[in-house]
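Pasting as-is:
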Amino acid sequence: MGQGEQVYERLREEIVEWDLAPGTHLNETRLAERLGVSRTPLREALLRLSRDRLVRLSPGRGAFVTEIALQDVVHQFQMREALETHAVRLCARNAERAVFGALAVDFLRWEEHFAREGVHGAETEYYALTDRLDAAIAEGTGNPYLRESLADVRRHLRRMRRLARRTPERLRVGAGEHARICRAAREGAEEEAARAVADHVNNSLRHILDALGGGASR
């Protein structure tokens, strides 16, 4: 992996995880010193990040981490619904579906956990489970182009996740929604799986918009 690729992946992760928050000025001199690289690979990385819409290049002012507008949230969730509903249909057609049965059991356990004990620092472990579901859906499609598109949208959604209030009730409901998706995929019920994905995506969007005070725009 070349320096430009390394810098790109590191900065992309820092932006997605809010180590570099929206609106942050990306000073080239300081970044190059911190990352131990020259300006050339850094600029290559910033250009790629601008194409990913994670960085905004402003002539005469430099580079900035892009802000997250309400319309951006809506657009990304529309993309997520379009891609994931088709992806889960493909998973339900796939002969190898056992992974979704095991995931359904795990999500039902988490649903019970959130109902009984609340959050209490369990988010990291729970989101690791949702990452496993994302990976299973991407792999189950058997389509490398769809996998790449899903990965791009999910990076933006990981960044937007910070905008929502992670209440025990929303996490409990979300775990139940994920269990429904997994059960339908395991049973090969592609239309039910697609409906379950659409319901979950739209509920997640409403939750974020409500947290931002923009629920009326949806």
